Amino acid sequence: MTKKNIAILSGGDSGEYGISVQSAAVVEKYLDKEKYNTFPILMKGLEWIHTCPHDNTYDIDKNDFSLPMIGEKIHFDGVFIAIHGTPGEDGKLQGYFDMMGIHYSTCDHVVSALTFNKHLCKLAVQSLGIKLAKSVFSTKNDNITAEDILQNLRLPLFVKPNNGGSSVGMSRVNRGEDLEAALNRAFEEDDEILVEEFIKGREITCGVLKYKDEIITLPVCEIISKKEFFDFEAKYDPKLADEIVPAQIPETIFKKCQETSAQLYQQLNCKGIVRFDYIYNDDGMFFLEVNTIPGMTEASIVPKMARAHGLTLDQLFGMVMEETLGE
């Protein structure tokens, strides 16, 4: 059997750079070396670099996404994108690989761009009859004020960059006098922001993937943050949050979370491993956001879900690559 050449991309141009590098290292560790030749590619701006085990570095040829090395030029059969944030999660790389005719592990460029934009994603999800928090969308050019927002939304509020992940630039606002600082913080990360009313309840999340024409929903996880909310620090410091898999919640909510996630995966035309986040309380289950390239570190939620489902990480990443390559 001829082994396939797989590029594993990490890095990117967002605050999630470091987590992306960790995720890619886990993917490379567990992807079957008997089936695949793996090539880690670190991306930062226009620098796309492969470092060999002997510490020699080589630049990717962006004209055809190949890897010129001493005595040979590597062409790739597929790409595992482990870049959280831009340009891996917002559709930019997907569009590039479509033009190159190279298979990749994630949603396509249209779905990636839509889901990365929290405001547009919420509009699409709302059209499917799924509950959402009341929100206000704004751009820098709108010159929106804290007073404008407080006339439309009730405290407490969450202020977040419209395009981004891992809660980078996100704030919870309990007092009106703190809202302006939160708006400024979010605008430092993005030219667009989303302000949402706080929903009191329990936070749950569900991972979904497709394998051999079957939609697989992983066990639901409940997230219990020991901070005011599940921010960037809590997401990647195991001492600051409990992630319970499978979630100890009513069976009806557990099933509804899985069914809704499978519905969204299909209706949004997702591919690869995708994670959907919600809050639920006595009023129902409310959609928060979708992560089309969720964290894949050893401590990340999706690997925990996979293990609870009975899948090893070798199997999980192997399934993703088989789907990517159409094997």
Secondary structure elements and their pairing?
Elements: E1 4-11, H1 17-30, E2 36-44, E3 47-51, E4 57-59, E5 66-69, E6 72-75, E7 78-81, H2 92-100, E8 103-104, H3 109-116, H4 118-126, E9 131-132, E10 135-139, H5 146-150, E11 157-161, E12 171-173, H6 179-189, E13 192-197, E14 202-211, E15 214-217, E16 221-225, H7 232-236, E17 241-244, H8 251-267, E18 274-281, E19 284-291, H9 301-309, H10 313-325
Parallel strand pairs: 1-2, 1-7, 7-8, 9-19
Antiparallel strand pairs: 2-3, 3-4, 5-6, 10-13, 11-12, 11-13, 14-15, 14-16, 14-18, 16-17, 18-19
Helix pairs in contact: 2-3
Brief rundown of the structure:
The protein is built from 10 helices and 19 strands.
What would you note in describing this structure?
- By secondary structure, this protein is of the alpha+beta class.
- It has three domains: 4-106, Rossmann fold (3-Layer(aba) Sandwich), CATH 3.40.50; 113-131 and 200-325, ATP-grasp fold, B domain (D-amino Acid Aminotransferase, Chain A, domain 1, 2-Layer Sandwich), CATH 3.30.470.20; 134-197, Dna Ligase, domain 1 (2-Layer Sandwich).
- The protein contains ten helices and 19 strands.
- The strands form four sheets. Strands 9, 14, 15, 16, 17, 18 and 19 form a seven-stranded mixed beta sheet that branches.
- Strand 7, helix 2 (92-100) and strand 8 form a beta-alpha-beta unit.
- The radius of gyration is 20 Å and the shape is globular.
- Residues 229-235 have low confidence and may be disordered.
